[in-house]
Write a structure and sequence with these properties.
4 copies of one chain form a homotetramer. The first copy, chain A, is of the alpha/beta class and about 230 residues long. Chain A has 10 helices and 8 strands. Chain A has an 8-stranded parallel sheet with strand order 2-1-8-7-6-5-4-3. The radius of gyration of chain A is 16 Å and the shape is globular.
Chain lengths: ~230, ~230, ~230, ~230
Amino acid sequence: MRVPVLAINFKTYPSAFGDKALAIAKTADKVAKELGNIEIIVIPPFTELRRILEAVEIPVFAQHADPYDYGAHTGWMPITALKDVGVKGVLLNHSEHRIRLDEIVHLVQKARELGLETLVCADTPQAAAAVATVNPVALAVEPPELIGTGVAVSKAKPEVITRTVELVRKVNSEVIILTGAGISSAEDVAKAIELGTAGVLVASAIMKAKDPEKVIREMAEAAVKAIKK
Amino acid sequence: MRVPVLAINFKTYPSAFGDKALAIAKTADKVAKELGNIEIIVIPPFTELRRILEAVEIPVFAQHADPYDYGAHTGWMPITALKDVGVKGVLLNHSEHRIRLDEIVHLVQKARELGLETLVCADTPQAAAAVATVNPVALAVEPPELIGTGVAVSKAKPEVITRTVELVRKVNSEVIILTGAGISSAEDVAKAIELGTAGVLVASAIMKAKDPEKVIREMAEAAVKAIKK
Amino acid sequence: MRVPVLAINFKTYPSAFGDKALAIAKTADKVAKELGNIEIIVIPPFTELRRILEAVEIPVFAQHADPYDYGAHTGWMPITALKDVGVKGVLLNHSEHRIRLDEIVHLVQKARELGLETLVCADTPQAAAAVATVNPVALAVEPPELIGTGVAVSKAKPEVITRTVELVRKVNSEVIILTGAGISSAEDVAKAIELGTAGVLVASAIMKAKDPEKVIREMAEAAVKAIKK
Amino acid sequence: MRVPVLAINFKTYPSAFGDKALAIAKTADKVAKELGNIEIIVIPPFTELRRILEAVEIPVFAQHADPYDYGAHTGWMPITALKDVGVKGVLLNHSEHRIRLDEIVHLVQKARELGLETLVCADTPQAAAAVATVNPVALAVEPPELIGTGVAVSKAKPEVITRTVELVRKVNSEVIILTGAGISSAEDVAKAIELGTAGVLVASAIMKAKDPEKVIREMAEAAVKAIKK
């Protein structure tokens, strides 16, 4: 994973499915290619992975993976199968999909063996530090009370970000740290990077935007600009 | 849903993904068209739904649905979204993916509103009767201890099937009743129908077969023949 | 279980523990003995069961049971152990502690074998009918949106109760039907019985009362009076 | 928590309830007082806590706690209530009762605020390191495949213990590290301490023993002897 990072969690908004999802993914792909020096990651629902994988060159992540190998697991999504579907990585432990500690450890290790990247969410600086010991490629700190509010953590609780960076760096010097929750504008992205993280995990600001391309472009440009400082 | 029914649960076997999954779905489609008087349903993982939906005309079901509408539900699969993806129905409460009673009630009602069919699993005749009060389109009784064993419930525990039919019919005269767990041969399918059910829910016997077409064809023909009696 | 029923769910309010819990249980015991013709059931947390069992003669139920036998189940509460602790029954599937359908079936059957009574909650008339097929001793219908509100279901949504009675009686002529959610006054209790149920499941109105004895007595008297009609 | 530690998880074995449980707790109390220089902790089921708390002076822990405050949480066990019941600490994240990472973080912090000690289990050295960043008072590494087998981790997989000590000490110099899983004899206890941990978490070897006092005494003496080296 390169930095800076603009990771777009499609969640299960109406725009996360079908032609709208495909269009947003293609837009992200286009902006990423134009700017060149940013990692834009799209994270669509399971049903949309194959279509989007065929249409874009930027990294596509799954929103979740289950700690299973192939087998008799009706309705679950084995991490092994996701690798073969073609994703570059998986989002894990999102606040809307928390998993057990032993599952985080198992999935991050399994992902590494499979050559998949991992982006693991944490709700507090302390949880982020715990996650960091497990050596995912990246982690995102997201205070759940701000998710989807439009109130950016980088504005409302900057100390959550700086404390996360501090605690994480005590135990892991390499993991990429992202800021999530309430990221709504290019300014929020710049602030997240100024506070010491390498980018953002964003959802509603793009998925609910009237003009997703405008938001993606502004956020990506802000990230590129901020990381240079 | 027409009868007899041959419902194929792809689970997450290696053959449930990619070209193998597509080939099995197409084979099922071909056999269904040739025989004409049987409902063959394919039930692939979420990631394979769109590709298979584009390639076949027989009913495609999802293996599970989450009791959500569109929204902020990272990594989950809202039943509303599945409708828009294009499935004809959903499998619910499989023994590998049990859900709460209130979720069964909610999902079956929501599916009905959306025009989706439901096939709800139950592990015992008593659970099947409880499910029947909720009015799904179909239910399948599957003693978990026989699933994946190759020992058919219709042979090993025929009384589970007859008792299920008896208890279910006391509370619901219309729901389609299927037999699951260990169904391995055409003979097992015939037996399931002779015992009073309208078909089978099968997985490993087809998904792990060297020649899935042969198994699908034999089972389908046995079902058609048995239902006529 | 005799009728009418006044089942008091202690939940985990501050008054559900220690001397306050003991006092409320003793009060319920006293009122039950004075009135004679009512079944008052107390349902305290696990930690309080033994103390209360030693102090009262009325039925004591557990708030939940796990579908295990004795064994290696750290931190869970096997239904078998609860029997030996001495409870007369268990509350199952409360809206704050929903369980899977297969667990409801298993626990109700296991309870019957052990000689324990069961009181199973349901959130809708449809779920109540499903529960009724499993033959618990009693069930309570509780629309979750009214729980703890002080707005009684018997006032705000009487049709939920009458519909529950209607659907349940189609499949089970014997199960005792209780009304829950928002029951706050003697009047609510009377209404619940007039609508065709055999009593109430109540929590905050008693556990948060300044004078629990007054509330218990008024509700019990209203139940006795209403049931005679 | 003093060292060395002999923590006895009663689980839900038949001997974990009633008079047998009380007798084992009293025996542990007696041995602890006789030896003086060892921390013997008893960890009984919720229903037995009050009786045992009244009968012994050694630390009594709960087997689990739910991340709730007092309130409407039917059938759950708020950590706040456990404090008031009188336990000295709580066992968390046992392999039979795994919890989410965010719950571990929340419960350990809440316990600290309440003045409760925490003993958090982990299944691997990596998970143990993650747990260590959260600063519980103690942690126990227990490979689940050895739990209840009578094959001690200290014999069968000593590298799990040494690796745990190594990874944990990189991030936390103070947390007490215990060895669990398959501890069956005084020799296993000695080995666990020689490998660098401060004691053991043991269950079946004591709870299923014909003579629990003999096992407790031998293990405690072995721990005291080994820690002096």
